[in-house]
Design goal:
Radius of gyration: 20 Å
Structural class: alpha/beta
Order of helices and strands: EEEHEHHEHEHHEHEHEHHEHHHHHH
Helix content: 40-55%
Bound molecules: NADP nicotinamide-adenine-dinucleotide phosphate
Strand content: 5-15%
C-alpha cells in the first residue's frame, strides 16, 4: 500500500467507502455485518487505513456499523476515521453541533481524523454559512474534536472555486473518474486544489461500478494492458494524480478488495505512460458517444415521492446503449414494471432534481427513458 504524507500523518492511498456495503435481503439499511467486517479487515490487512462513512449512508446505519466494527476489533487508533456533517439537516448553528455529537456517539469515538461538510452545492453552502458553519468548523478543530476539516462537493466548477477559497480547508473531496474529467469540479477543480496545496479525496472512481463493466470496444482495449482488469485501469486514473491523498472505493466482494489494494500498492503518482493516457481518452470518447444520462446510482434521489426506482430506470436506459442491449433492457423494464412503480406516475414534484448530486434533469429523463424502454 502506498501512503500520502499529510503533515507527517500516513494516509493510505485507497480508502474504504462505506456507502455501498453488502446488505441482507436487498434491504439497504440491513448491512451484512459479517461480510462487511471481513472485507474491511482484509483491506486493513493490506495496509488500508482510511475509512469513509456519512450520517445518511445505509439508512443511517453505516456510522453505527463502523463504530461497532472498530470497537469490536480494537482498530479505532489504527485507522483514519472520516464522516460527514449532513449540513442540509441543520436549521441553526446548534444543529451542526448536535449532529456531530450524535455522529461521535454512533462511531464510538471522542474525535474524528477527517470531517467533511457533506455534499456541498451552491445553495446548501450558502445556507450553512449563514447558519455559522465556518465558525463551527473552526471551533471543533480548536477543541480537537476533529483533526482535519474539509468538504465534499457536487456542483459546478465555479461553485467549487468559491467554496475552496473561502476557508483554509485541510482537504476536500470530489467525484472524479477517467470518464467525467470535465464534470462538476472535474480535473480543473483538482488542479486548483493542487495549486492551493489542498489534498484531495476522490469518490466514485469507478462511477459507482459502471467502469468495471465497460462496452466491448473498451474491454478489448483493456486487454492490451496485460494483467489489468477494467476496474483496475479505472482506479489507476485518480491514483496516478499526485495531489490525491486517497481514492475511495465501495468494495463489496473480496476480489474487489484484492484488485483495488493491489493497484494502491502498485500505482505511483505522475507515472502514466502515453499508451495509458491514450486509452483514457479513447475510452472517454466511446462512452460519451453512447450514454443517455449520467446517473451514478448514488440513490440520493431515493425514496422518490411516488416510489419510482429512478436509478434502476436510468440504468436500464443507459445499458441499452452502452452495451448494445436494447432488447435485454426492454425485457428487464417489463419485469421492473410488474413490481416497481411506473415512471409515468411521476408527479413532477422535483424533489429528486433538487438533491441529485449530478444535477440531472430527472423528470425529463424519466419520460425519455420510458419512451425508449416501453
Ligand atoms: N460525499 C459524497 O457526496 C459522496 C457521494 C458518493 C460517494 N461517496 C463516498 O465515496 C465512496 C466511493 O464511492 P463509490 O462507492 O461510488 O465508489 P466506486 O468505486 O465508484 O463504486 C463502487 C462499486 O464499484 C464496484 N467495484 C469496486 N471495485 C471493483 C472491482 N475491483 N471490480 C469490480 N467492481 C468493483 C462495486 O460495484 P458492485 O456493487 O456492482 O459490485 C462497488 O459497489 C462511497 O462509498 C462513499 O463513501 C461520497
Amino acid at each position: 500500500m502506498k501512503y500520502f504524507d499529510l503533515n507527517g500523518k500516513k494516509v493510505s492511498r485507497l480508502g474504504f467507502g462505506c456507502m455501498r456495503l453488502p446488505v441482507l435481503d436487498k434491504d439497504n439499511s440491513k448491512i451484512d455485518k459479517e461480510k462487511a467486517s471481513e472485507l474491511i479487515l482484509a483491506a486493513i490487512d493490506k495496509g488500508l487505513n482510511y475509512i469513509d462513512t456519512a450520517y445518511n449512508y445505509h439508512g443511517k446505519m453505516s456510522e453505527k456499523f463502523v463504530g461497532e466494527f472498530l470497537e469490536e476489533h480494537n482498530l479505532r487508533d489504527k485507522v483514519n476515521l472520516t464522516t460527514k456533517n449532513p449540513v442540509w439537516l441543520a436549521e441553526s448553528k446548534e444543529d451542526f453541533y448536535k449532529l456531530l455529537e450524535e455522529q461521535l456517539a454512533n462511531l464510538r469515538t471522542d474525535h474524528l481524523d477527517f470531517y467533511l461538510l457533506h455534499s456541498l452545492s451552491k445553495d446548501s453552502f450558502h445556507k450553512a454559512v449563514d447558519l455559522g458553519v465556518l465558525d463551527f468548523a473552526e471551533d471543533i478543530k480548536k477543541r480537537g474534536l476533529v483533526k482535519n476539516i474539509g468538504f465534499s462537493f457536487h456542483d459546478e466548477y465555479e461553485v467549487f472555486e468559491e467554496i475552496i477559497k473561502v476557508y483554509p480547508w485541510d482537504f476536500c473531496q470530489i467525484q472524479l473518474n477517467y470518464l467525467d474529467i470535465d464534470y462538476q469540479a472535474g480535473i480543473k477543480g483538482y488542479e486548483l486544489a493542487k495549486r492551493m496545496g489542498i489534498p484531495m479525496v476522490i469518490m466514485e472512481p469507478l462511477k459507482g461500478g459502471r467502469l468495471s463493466n465497460p462496452p466491448e470496444e473498451i474491454a478489448s482495449m483493456v486487454d492490451s494492458f496485460e494483467g489489468y482488469s477494467p476496474s483496475q485501469m479505472a482506479i489507476k486514473f485518480p491514483l496516478s494524480l499526485d495531489n490525491v491523498m486517497t481514492v475511495l472505493s465501495g468494495m463489496n466482494e473480496m476480489g474487489q478488495v484484492e484488485e483495488n489494494t493491489d493497484m494502491a500498492d502498485k500505482v505511483e503518482a505522475n507515472k502514466l505512460s502515453q499508451e495509458e493516457k491514450d486509452f483514457y481518452k479513447k475510452a472517454r470518447d466511446i462512452y460519451k458517444s453512447k450514454e443517455q444520462i449520467a446517473c451514478t446510482a448514488c440513490e440520493y434521489c431515493m425514496p422518490c415521492t411516488v416510489d419510482i426506482n429512478i436509478p434502476r430506470v436510468f440504468a436500464l436506459w443507459n445499458n441499452g446503449f452502452l452495451y448494445d442491449e436494447e432488447e435485454k433492457s426492454k425485457e428487464a423494464y417489463k419485469t421492473y414494471l410488474e413490481k416497481g412503480v411506473d415512471p409515468q406516475s411521476c408527479i413532477e414534484c422535483g424533489k429528486c432534481e433538487g438533491i441529485c448530486p449530478q444535477s440531472l434533469e430527472i423528470i425529463e429523463g424519466l419520460k425519455e427513458a420510458d419512451q425508449y424502454l416501453r
